[in-house]
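May I ask for whichever protein you like with its backbone structure tokens?
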Amino acid sequence: MGKNFSKAELVLTAGNISQLVRDGRPQIAFSGRSNVGKSSLINTLIGRKSLARVSQSPGKTITVNYYLIDDSFYLVDIPGYGYAKRSSEDKARWSSLVNGYFTKYGQNITAVAQLIDLKVGCTADDLTMLDFMSKKDLSYFVVATKSDKLNVTERKKALARLAEQPCLENSDIIVFSALKKEGKDEVIQKILSLVTK
């Protein structure tokens, strides 16, 4: 059964663990390093330009944002990791909030869309996150973002490097470009397959 992705609203911006949603609706979490394109992906999926706000200061916003889709499931934008200029206080807040989301409220997560910049490839932080999800037995799929920044040859090489990662051997990898809308339908179909089981 289809869902209307354009029927979307930001229902909660949670800055601490006690605010995290646990109402029984499926949740698809969007994970990735700062500036990997989580907000751009969410905006593309719902057909809006700025419902999910792109931060002017990468790594500064430390909130879990819940976007309710068609009154039936959430797209959950969790704070990006790996931003070097984040203060130790901000890092502690990030760690507490994100760990709380994945551990204390992990049973609410249907799956994680793990975003990886196709041009940059898997960073050490990405690998740490993938390992963490595997150990927690969280279902995830990979969205390789910013594909428009590579030519055909570069793209093939970048995808091959991603596929070589042991933690991604059996993972779905969807190539995505917010600029060209490439991969939008594939991501939507993947999400629908998870939330309508």
Notes: The two ends are 10 Å apart (CA to CA). The helical segments are 38-46, 88-104, 124-135, 152-164, 184-195. The chain has a mean pLDDT of 90.
